[in-house]
Design brief:
Oligomer: single chain
Structural class: alpha/beta
CATH architecture of the largest domain: 3-Layer(aba) Sandwich
Helix content: 40-55%
CATH topology of the largest domain: Rossmann fold
Largest sheet: 7 strands, mixed
Radius of gyration: 21 Å
Order of helices and strands: HHEEHHEEHEHEHEHHHEEH
Number of domains: 2
Strand content: 5-15%
Length: about 350
């Protein structure tokens, strides 16, 4: 499954260091106080352009600075997207790309009272080796969570291929006496998706066709649509040529990006190897829409190990592969609130 964080969104996040460097060059100091940005600047340094960027990118900047702070205090797996609030904290496992920012929009729409921590796997930072067993990844996260917050309760969440890791993480924490009121799985991929070739091909092809169809539908003219198809085909040919070894031009490889590519492949290997164990706690499965039941992701197979799992469905037009991003994040956040309210009702 394509990771929920889209390329344009991830590209925007990668621009944050450049923005902060530009501010620093003007002696403009940026810091985070609770969930607010603080700015200190010499007279005249904070131009209208910089003000607009700070206003428009506030959430991204806070998330980036929180990530840096978390790494500085030796908690590399804990990325605070929202560190304050009275609700039970959520600790969320991203998909196979491992990008913690895939939860940024969801955490924003869950509200200021909902603490939300994304979990960053080993290998994403380019300084550690990725793990190829779900059990090892879950154990790593369990240690990090307990070090960061020694006592529960914790709500464990997972997205896409991270759903399996989230379930294993909740199982480990429960075995050690932690209170886990709920496991929230967003569009979870069952391990059999990557074991059965026909199912995998159908799933990946469906995702590619849906993405291309949406892109073409947004183009204004027939000529633009034709150009998009031509550019896509040319891109695929170039990619195939490179894979066949016909592209002899040397390519500089960024070590962090190389580590993340390795992380993606090892995460898929880990999911393929994993056999989920029975889980007795409460599980809520959030799917982008009812059509997802026939997507090839095999969500019904989770019922074999958690027969009482609750299913919640997003609206019909929800983007299957970007369900946690705008414009669908508010609808998915509303589903989460609905599930939590259901737990609070007397039975």
């Amino acid at each position: 499954m394509k990771q929920g964080i889209g390329r344009p969104f991830m590209h925007d996040m990668l621009q944050i260091p450049d923005l902060l460097a530009g501010l620093a060059a003007k002696d403009i100091k940026i810091s985070v106080e609770r969930d607010r940005l603080r700015c200190s600047a010499p007279v005249g340094a904070l131009t209208p352009e910089f003000r607009d960027q700070l206003r428009d990118r506030k959430g991204d900047i806070i998330a980036f600075l929180n990530m840096a702070t978390a790494a500085a205090v030796q908690q590399p797996a804990i990325i605070p997207l929202q560190s304050h609030g009275t609700q039970t904290p959520i600790y969320a496992v991203p998909g196979h790309i491992g990008a913690p920012f895939s939860f940024l929009n969801l955490s924003k729409h869950l509200g200021d009272d909902q603490p939300f921590y994304a979990l960053q796997p080993a290998g994403f930072d380019g300084q550690s080796e990725p793990m190829d067993r779900v059990e090892d990844i879950a154990e790593y996260f369990a240690r990090q969570i307990v070090d960061y917050q020694p006592a529960g309760p914790y709500i464990i969440a997972g997205y896409c291929s991270g759903g399996a890791t989230a379930l294993e993480l909740a199982r480990i924490l429960r075995q050690r006496g932690a209170d886990i009121p709920c496991v929230a799985l967003f569009g979870p991929l069952h391990p059999t998706t990557y074991r059965e070739l026909p199912r995998l091909l159908y799933f990946l092809t469906r995702g590619s066709v849906d993405t291309i169809a949406r892109e073409i539908a947004n183009l204004p003219t027939f000529g633009a649509r034709l150009q998009y198809c031509y550019d896509s085909l040319r891109g695929h040919v170039r990619s195939l040529t490179a894979r066949l070894g016909k592209n002899q031009e040397p390519v500089a490889v960024d070590p962090v990006l190389a580590s993340r590519e390795q992380l993606k492949s090892t995460a898929i290997t880990a999911l393929r190897r994993y056999t989920p164990a029975r889980y007795a706690g409460r599980v809520c499965i959030f799917l982008p829409n009812k059509a997802w039941l026939r997507s090839g992701a095999a969500p019904h197979r989770w019922l074999q190990v958690m027969p009482h799992a609750e299913f919640y469905f997003g609206p019909r037009g929800c983007n299957d592969f970007r369900m946690l991003e705008e414009p669908d994040a508010p609808a998915i956040a509303a589903l989460y609130h609905q599930a939590m309210q259901r737990a609070d009702r007397p039975r």
